[in-house]
């Protein structure tokens, strides 16, 4: 039983404070990750936020996802940011005038009425849609929530499995570190090193107005992020081989375990949605099975007991241990021995889950690049903690899951729903009042 809500911050219960954060970040049609640092709608944030919001207001949770889905491009991609037109351009970089979605993205079917980025984020959406439906099936049916979401989700998965299978092995590739969501993870260092950075003078980082420079990615990282995004944009956001990988240059294409595991979990969810809508869902479950086999075949390293990123350009696994490699634990049909090995790795010296680490570090505690405060190079995040907690439960590790759940709740509470925390001390880093931290706290409390 979790009781820290009455001790750490006085009598104001944790779930009430989490609800207040979500209320404060709500814009009327969606929820911002953070009022200061991230003042627009983010794709995978919205999925996690909806998973928590469903406990407060199933209608708001449905609306959150519908707002995102309505910004989908004609080619099926769901953009990583949907811009709020009432927010000043200089509040976040890169802004709509950088992405130029409605012009540069025209051939790819970018929407005309709303401005978006042109890259994607992890496909947590079908999973979120299914969980939101389950919170209030009556409301969902009355509003035709699943029937309207299903074709969009199906097109989204089709985009990832066809246009983004750059390695030809059945998995989806990301063409920018922002797409995978763990922006400056050391897993990207080697593949990114081939990218010539855009000059620092050519852009202005708005993130440094809100976040401490030593907790954020470096200027060199940003130069490379800008170069990749610029090249992708200038190629009309075209995907595929020939003119190069997604970015049109062939410089960056990576198969990531977490991105693909979330796609598989969402494919299973899409099968359930199809069933609810009167189809069998069998073909989708079968596809999820094939994808799981491809994930194991292409990204599992039995000697290390972890999934790794595959650098598609080099054709090799990237030898860095990131939390991304633990996320496939989420998959219900992961081979038993692999699941058992992943649990051992999570609890072992590199991640120390349930040991010296309070939550789940984003990167190898023993890795050369480990930094307890710098964004995705060590700090613990709540979305990945939630995913690993779910994975532990999925594979019968109830005691470990319970311990992680308690740690997540205590840390969310004590850190004022921080964006991320020092993995050893739980000290808050980044933005406070962060959307998915509050939302996933609510989910864990239910
Ligand atoms: C770039 C919004 C997003 C998260 C990402 C996180 C961070 C953006 C940034 O914030 O990325 O998309 O500006 O640093 O890395 O996972 O979705 O919360």
UniProtKB/TrEMBL annotation:
Q: Which UniProt keywords apply?
A: Glycosidase, Hydrolase
Q: Does the keyword Transmembrane helix apply?
A: no
- State whether keyword Transmembrane helix applies: no
Per its UniProt record, what Gene3D superfamilies does this chain match? 1.50.10.10
Tell me the GO BP annotations in alphabetical order.
oligosaccharide metabolic process; protein N-linked glycosylation
- According to the entry, every stretch annotated as the Mannosylglycerate hydrolase MGH1-like glycoside hydrolase domain falls at 38-437
**InterPro entries reported for this sequence:** 6-hairpin_glycosidase_sf, 6hp_glycosidase-like_sf, Glycoside_hydrolase_63, MGH1-like_GH
A Pfam family reported for this protein in Swiss-Prot or TrEMBL:
MGH1-like_GH
Please give the Gene Ontology molecular function terms for this protein. Answer: Glc3Man9GlcNAc2 oligosaccharide glucosidase activity
Similarity field: Belongs to the glycosyl hydrolase 63 family.
List the protein's name. Mannosylglycerate hydrolase MGH1-like glycoside hydrolase domain-containing protein
The organism is Streptomyces lacrimifluminis
């Amino acid at each position: 039983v979790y009781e820290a809500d009455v001790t750490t911050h006085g009598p104001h219960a944790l779930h009430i404070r989490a609800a207040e954060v979500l209320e404060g970040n709500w814009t009327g049609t969606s929820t911002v990750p953070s009022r200061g640092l991230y003042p627009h709608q983010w794709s995978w944030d919205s999925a996690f936020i909806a998973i928590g919001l469903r406990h407060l207001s199933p209608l708001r949770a449905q609306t959150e996802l519908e707002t995102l889905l309505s910004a989908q491009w004609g080619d099926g991609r769901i953009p990583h940011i949907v811009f709020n037109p009432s927010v000043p351009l200089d509040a976040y970089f890169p802004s709509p005038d950088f992405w130029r979605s409605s012009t540069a993205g025209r051939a790819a079917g970018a929407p005309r009425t709303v401005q978006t980025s042109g890259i994607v984020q992890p496909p947590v959406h079908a999973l979120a849609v299914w969980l939101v439906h389950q919170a209030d099936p009556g409301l969902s049916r009355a509003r035709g929530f699943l029937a309207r979401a299903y074709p969009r989700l199906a097109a989204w998965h089709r985009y990832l499995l066809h246009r983004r299978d750059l390695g030809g092995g059945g998995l989806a590739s990301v063409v920018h570190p922002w797409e995978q969501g763990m922006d400056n993870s050391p897993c990207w260092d080697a593949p990114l090193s081939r990218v010539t950075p855009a000059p620092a003078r050519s852009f202005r980082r708005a993130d440094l107005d809100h976040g401490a420079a030593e907790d954020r990615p470096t200027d060199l990282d940003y130069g490379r992020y800008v170069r990749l995004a610029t090249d992708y944009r200038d190629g009309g956001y075209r995907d595929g081989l020939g003119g190069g990988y997604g970015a049109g240059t062939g410089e960056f294409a990576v198969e990531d375990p977490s991105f693909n595991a979330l796609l598989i979990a969402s494919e299973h969810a899409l099968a359930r949605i199809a069933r609810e809508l009167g189809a069998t869902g069998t073909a989708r479950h079968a596809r999820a099975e094939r994808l799981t086999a491809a994930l194991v075949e292409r990204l599992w390293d039995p000697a290390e007991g972890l999934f790794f990123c595959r650098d598609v350009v080099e054709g090799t696994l990237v030898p860095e241990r990131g939390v991304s490699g633990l996320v496939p634990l989420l998959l219900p049909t992961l081979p038993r021995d692999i699941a058992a090995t992943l649990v051992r790795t999570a609890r072992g010296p590199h991640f120390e889950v349930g040991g010296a680490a309070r939550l789940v570090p984003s990167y190898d505690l023993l890795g050369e690049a480990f930094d307890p405060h710098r964004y995705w190079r060590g700090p613990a995040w709540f979305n990945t903690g939630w995913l690993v907690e779910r994975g532990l439960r999925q594979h019968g590790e109830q005691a470990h899951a319970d311990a992680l759940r308690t740690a997540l709740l205590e840390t969310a509470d004590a850190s004022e729903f921080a964006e991320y925390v020092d993995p050893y001390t739980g000290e808050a880093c980044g933005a406070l009042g962060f959307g998915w931290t509050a939302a996933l706290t609510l989910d864990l409390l239910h």
